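Blinded run. Sample ID left blank on purpose so nobody reads anything into the name before looking at the predicted structure. Input follows.
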Amino acid sequence: MKFFYGEFDGEEFPTQDKLFGFDQLMQFILQYGDQALKAMQQMIDQPKDGELSELLEQLLQDGMLDKDGKGKLRLTPKAVGNMQSKALMEVFKNLKQGQREGHEKTTSGTGGERLDGTKQYEFGDPISELDLHQTLRNAMAREGMKGKGQGTGAWGSGGKTELTDPKSPSPSPSPPSPSPIRINIHERDFEIHLHEGMTSVSTVVLIDMSGSMMRHGRFLAAKKVALAMLGLVRQRFPQDTIDFVGFYSGANKIPEMGLPLLMPKPVTVYDYQVRLKVPVNQLDKAPQHFTNLHMGLQMARRILRKRGGLNKQIFVITDGQPTAHVEGDFVHLLYPPDPRSTAATLKEALMAAREDVRIATFALIEDYWGMDWVGFVDQLTRLTKGVAFYTSSGELANCIMESYLSGRKKKAHI
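Blinded prediction complete.
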């Protein structure tokens, strides 16, 4: 038996019920996915610990867990909603102060609070938001006050008209009134008030589900970020849309209820070189742990074509180079990474960029050892004029949330 000693922090030692509360069970599910539900099912069917069984029964009564038609445990929407809220609070607690909680844009015209400052009028801007004072100042500055005292102005005749009785003696002549200044206004003088507007965003998050994502807690971090983003969109940005796609040897859209149970594909082939050509309709029979970012991008493009956001973007969370790609009706699984997979993936990313889709890549590099991986991300970023974040699992949430909220376009090394 081994003993470990540490400094006492003064906190009360947790009892059994505090060790296994709702938060701990939800963390257990996030970490082990569907296997966690199977273990909890066994606790109910074959109870060995009374307190744990009572806790699970309480979760069933509270509507956090449910049973399907076959009597198997499943998460309820209430439980997934609570997990989203907890992940969202955890992420924002760690964000630096001062970061924005919205993707605002400065626009002309109506639709938001009026801001200080103006902009030059452009065709299509609403005339109702014309800043008359700044427009006149522009015209006067351009004219240099010329025309002062020259005859009739833009605002009147320049003379003074009075009604008099023709029988009355002629009045003494009054001094002539000064003529108004003629101001010639050109279109380039027009200034429009600025307003704070909100823009809608359609996002697809591509999550790497290859076998290596199990290391260093990468996949757990990716799932927490996905849940936090989903909660953020539902609560604060109802005008936005967000979809999730998992890519491995293939690619598949992930339903919201399936996010907590998602897990990477286990490695099943350990050969130092793999060259497989598999029909697309038989891909489920092939090894699943490869990295088919090509197919993931294809699916993301199809999803975004159906979305109505003014801005569209793809977030790629991955830890390695593509090791699979699609050619016609076949999927090629290639290890070590092959230039053909790289070329197919980059071509698909370029097609997305030409459809005005912004691509942000979050490269998890805790244990990378070769420059080929970093080189691929650099190629992808340069080709699509996108964003690259070289980060670790612990910083993934900060990077993704900041990128989503601010839409910044710069490379970050963390």
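Unblinding after everyone has recorded impressions. Residues 108 and 194 are 5 Å apart (CA to CA).
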